[in-house]
Amino acid sequence: MKHRHHPARTSWFGLIAAALLSACGGGGTEQGMLSLSTLQPASHAVKSNQILIADRFNNRVIVIDPASHAVTWQFGTGSDQAGPKSVVGVNDAVRYGELTLISGTGIPPSSPALPGCSDPINGCPDNRVMLVDRGGNIVWQYGQAGVAGSDANQLNTPVQAAALKGFMGKAGLHVIITDQANQRIIVVDRQHRLVWQYGTTGTAGMGLNQLNNPNSAEVLDNGNVLIADESNNRAIEVTMKGGLVKQFTAGGTLNGVAFASRLPSGNTLVSDSNNNRVVEVDPTDKIVWQYATNTMPGSNANPLPTRAVRLANGNTLISDQFNDRVIEVDAGGNVVFQQGMLNMPGRGANQLNGPYDAKVIGDFTGLGTPLNGADLTN
């Protein structure tokens, strides 16, 4: 999903409004088209591994216990003002040992105001990527609270980030950031120096070194970078020198690529948000598995699912954004776990509001090299 703060660019706001106002969807069963040749069926749902959730319109990051659905940790007071204890419109979070990397995306202007933001004219910006400790203290930050820009230590609508232990032969903490409204992917070091970039700052396009509302980026084991190039309706793999290696469009069917990750099998898992589905494609771009999130009775007709990650148990964890839930589905398309109530936004017990990202803590399947807190403090 696009998260731009520029009133002149309105397509994202239209999608948000449509999602928030659309009626409940029709009947059918909770399943999509399935081809199970590349998947291993899971024997059980997550029972004890805790789940980290970016609860977007509740302006918080939470950890929940799947067995009880209870919140066991939280960062974010719910305030729509970016501050030392608050995060606004959070889109992405990942836990590394005792530290949590959080992308404070912000909430754009909209009339009427979107949930979680009290200012329909200016929106509620955040524009930070933060490392937060278990006590809720920010120990490192890139970007300035509420300030949108592209200069040193500035971001404009950061939608996703991941920590790297070293980068291109350079030791120490580096962070790859999807800086959406600046139309770029950047890597910065602990000293806030920009050490790598793909995409031309401020220029949307589809040519070489151009992106159009990028929504995620992942450094692959082969050293290339996999990018969800949302509004170009593709996922691309590029080299560190900026060369285009591969492009994935699911045979030209993708519409609004919200996330992409490279699976251990070599296939690529893609959140095809505007088509309300998750697809897995093989290296030839052939769809080998897909799951639609809008077919259950009572579903939002256009839930616009965002993050989808393959778990070590073979299941897929999906942030079903405007169905206000996080679900785990097995290879056969069965929902084996759900956090949040279907199409019922809220902040109470077992409630979410536009969850944008969810990950099982400690499970880095398809998400890059596992790191711990010590890796981030060196």
Task: Explain how this protein is built.
This protein is mainly beta and about 375 residues long. It has a single domain (about 10-20, about 50-375), classed as Neuraminidase, CATH 2.120.10.30. Helices cover about 5% and strands about 40% of the residues. The protein has helices spanning about 10-20, 375; strands at about 50-55, 60-65, 70-75, 90-95, 100-105, 125-130, 140, 160-165, 170-180, 185-190, 195-200, 215-220, 225-230, 235-240, 245-250, 255-260, 270, 275-280, 285-290, 310, 315-320, 325-330, 335-340, 355-360. The strands form six sheets. Strands 3-2-1-24 form a four-stranded antiparallel sheet, with no helix packed on it. The chain has a four-stranded antiparallel sheet with strand order 4-5-6-7, with no helix packed on it. Strand 4 (about 90-95) and strand 5 (about 100-105) form a beta hairpin. The model is unreliable at about 5-50 (pLDDT under 50).
Summary, kept brief:
With 378 residues, this protein is mainly beta.
Strand-helix topology:
Layout: H1 11-21, E1 51-55, E2 60-65, E3 70-75, E4 90-96, E5 99-107, E6 124-132, E7 138-142, E8 158-167, E9 170-179, E10 184-189, E11 194-198, E12 214-219, E13 225-229, E14 234-238, E15 244-248, E16 257-262, E17 268-272, E18 277-281, E19 287-292, E20 308-310, E21 316-320, E22 325-329, E23 335-339, E24 355-360, H2 373-377
Antiparallel strand pairs: 1-2, 1-24, 2-3, 4-5, 5-6, 6-7, 8-9, 9-10, 10-11, 12-13, 13-14, 14-15, 16-17, 17-18, 18-19, 20-21, 21-22, 22-23
